[in-house]
Amino acid sequence: MVVGMGFARVFGMVSTFLVAHLLGPSLLGIWSTIRLIFVYGTINHLGVLEAYRKEVPRLEGAGNHTEANRIEGISLGFAWLSSIVLVFAGSIFLLLARFYSPSSSVSLNLIPSIAMLFAVMGATVGTLLFDRFTVRHLFEQASILRGLRGFAYMLFLPSGAWLGDIIGVAIGFAFAEWSITLAAWFLAKGKCPPLAMAFDWNKIRELIRIGFPITLVWWAYLMETTFDRVVSITLLGSEQTGMYFMGITLASVLQMVPESLSRVFNPRLNEKMGESSDPSEVARIVWAPASFLSWILPVCFGCVIFLIPPLYETGFPKYIPAISSSQILILGAILAAFIPLGTDFLVSIHRQRQLAFLVPITLAVNIGFNILLVRLGFGIEGIALVSFCTNGAVAIFLWWQVARLIHTEGTTAFMLPLGWGILVALVLVCCLLKQPFYSLSNSWVDGAFQIIIFIPVYFLGIFIHPVVRGWMKKDLKSLLRQISMAQDAGKA
Hints:
By secondary structure, the chain is an all-alpha fold.
């Protein structure tokens, strides 16, 4: 899984840079808004896929393989049906909008919008086919698919941008999603049980009852993390939105590894609940990788932050005004990286309703403060700061719940998602260099010098705390033990 995510990260970075260079800030801003059709459209399954991820591992853990296979076929059938309905209804709406309001932004981007509907169809079916590997712990195949997804994006998106601007990118995006779906279908042959569509409306209603509350939570979270683009393009225009989206895409690429861990651990969490029904046992499963990420991610993301100015100056001069917002978004991505795994934990122990109360509150705060800060003149930097704060609030809440179940002190739960050492190090580096980290006077040499100062200061800052020091020692011992076991196996 890690190898596939590594390739996906590299391909994703290349795709992002090429599309940004080919489209420019203004068209990139329009493209980022059109992509919201894909983001929101993927909830068309009404929670059936969420129920599939929850129920199938639980049934497998309990030994009920027949029912697990039946649910898989029913989920596939409903994935196709809901996707077809979405494409049909969405296309009719777009055509009516074109007829009654030919000069509206929706009408002017009719073809890209329809292409995104077809991308949603491919992604919905493809998601279920991908999950067939993770629920069975076939992570080699899942890793291959992750790598292929990044390669498909790198192949189709820049090619589409070069051939046809936004229309080309949207069609390329749809081709990429469908290529991954077809690849998943072929990879499953001989690895997963035969799969055929089935329809059982009583069972579908039951799956919707289980999964729809989970989907609502994810939908609200998606709204919180994407509404900033709606505010930006409405109040600041497409060019500023394109600059802001550059930072979003970089942050999302960096979050691929934590998100892949969520996909890996989701089946294990549900299986554990099926075996023992003890939430504290499930909490211990997620705490180990989270504690490791809590001191590794900040140093990785922090190094990237210092390289943003020379990167933009050298390769993307049109995006230089977006340096500060990109750095804030990447810093905030440290917090957001912990949200998927924490959410999977609450869902697995049937406590997702706690998020149903929190996320709408943070969504309202996000919308209100985004509009306020833009009106006060803070621009995309203000929007990025609001995202930083709201994601941090959700992450801290999630991991507080985990800490309570394993009887860990509350301050530890606060530190785990926050990665507070990076903030100390960034401030110190800025003071040493007598310039803010968003200054345009940076070069590659300046960035490297900042990183050289940052890394030891960061580790010194977090090593002072005995709890984090204990995490680091435990993680390093575990890593060295695994390396030793691998070497012994190789000699044998």
